[in-house]
Amino acid sequence: MTSLSTPAGFDPLEGVSEDGVMAPAEYDAILLASFGGPEGQEDVIPFLRNVTRGRGIPDERLEEVATHYRANGGISPINEQNRALKAALEGELDRRGIQLPVLWGNRNWAPYIKDVLQEAHDAGYRRLLMVTTSVYSCYSSCRQYREDLGINLVETGLDKTLRVDKVRQYFDHPGFVEPFVEGVRDSLAKVRDQLAAAGKDNGKIEILFSTHSIPTADAEAAGPRDVEFEEGSAYVAQHLANCRAIMDRIPEAAGLDWQLVYQSRSGSPHTPWLEPDINDAIAELPAKGVEGVVIVPLGFVSDHMEVIWDLDTEAMETCSELGLAAHRAPTPGIHEKFVAGIVDLICERTVENNIADRPALTNLGPWYDVCRPGCCANLRGEKPTIAGVDSTVGRQ
Q1: Which of 6, 9, 198, 286 could cross-link to 126 by cystine, CB 3.0-4.6 Å?
Q2: The pTM is what?
Q3: 64 has binding-site annotation
Q4: Which residues bind Fe(2+) (predicted)?
C-alpha cells in the first residue's frame, strides 16, 4: 500500500501537541531499526569499526572485544532475532488486517538503514514510522537513532521527500514490561528449586535488574532538560520505575531485596560510567547472606551479545564461583505480548486502526512521540535529526 502521503518538503512538527503527542497519520510502511551485528568471523572487525567510527580506536583494541563474538562463531544473535521479530510483527499486523509492510534496517551492519531508506523511496513510500529495538531514553538508545536517520536522509538526498517519524520510547508499555513479570516469576521459582535441592529451602534471594552502562555524562543528559528525574537521569529513573513496576506485580517476590546494576561498559577507564557493575554486585551478595540470585536483563529487547556474554557467561560464572544458585530471566524476544504491544504502539500513530489509549505502567509515561528540546543531548555536537522538537530534516 502506497499513499504518497508526504509532499516534497514538510514541517516535522505538524500535528504535534504541546505535550509531544503527534496526531495520527497515514503511513506507507514500518521501519524496524536496530543496532546490527556481524554474521561471520570476517565481519567482526569491520562491524566494530562501524560501531566505534570516529573514536580512533585501533584494531588491536577492537580485537579484545571481538573475542566475545569469535567465541560464538563470529556471529551476533541480534540479526537473526530481528528477522524473527520482523516476521512476528508481520504476522500480527496481518492478523489484525493492517496493510503495512515491515522494513528492517541496522545502524552498524547490513541491512544498513541508508540502503533501506533508498529502497523504500524507490518503492514509492513517502512516510515511514520507525520502531527501534532500544526502549529507554539516552543518547545511544534514542537520539543516536534519530541522528542516524537524519544523517542518512540528508546523505541520500531524500530529506525533503521521505519523512520518517518514530514511535515513543516504550520502556513502560505493558507489552515490554509484562513479559519480564512472567520471566522474573518463573526464574524466581527456578532459583528456589535450586536452593531446595541443595537443602536451603529458606535461602535468601536477591533480584538484580541489569542494563547497559553508559557514561555518567550521557546519563545526566538523558531526557528533556525541563524535567527533574530520580538520580538526575531519565535513563536511570525509567529503569528504576520499571523495576518497581515488575516487583509490584509479583506477589512471590514480596520482601525480596533488589537492585539496579549495570553491564557491558566500554571506552576509556578514566571516563565515569554508571555503576555498580553486575559482577561487582554479585561479589557482594554472600556477605549479605544471599544464597540465590535472579538476573533480569531489563535493558534489552532480545538476547543480544551483551546478554549471552556478559550475563549468561561472565555473570553466571561469577555466581557459580561464589556458590550462588542463579537463573537469568528471558528477554521479551518475540513474546506474544511484546509483539502485540509494538503493533499497539504503531496503531497509536495511525489514522486507520487507531488506538487512542496510550498505556504506561509507571508514572513517567507515556513518553513523548516527539522528543522535547535538548532531550538526550549529543554532548559531542549537534547533528541532523528527526522526530524531535529540534528536528532539522524535512524543513524547507
Answers
A1: 6
A2: 0.95
A3: no
A4: 212, 306
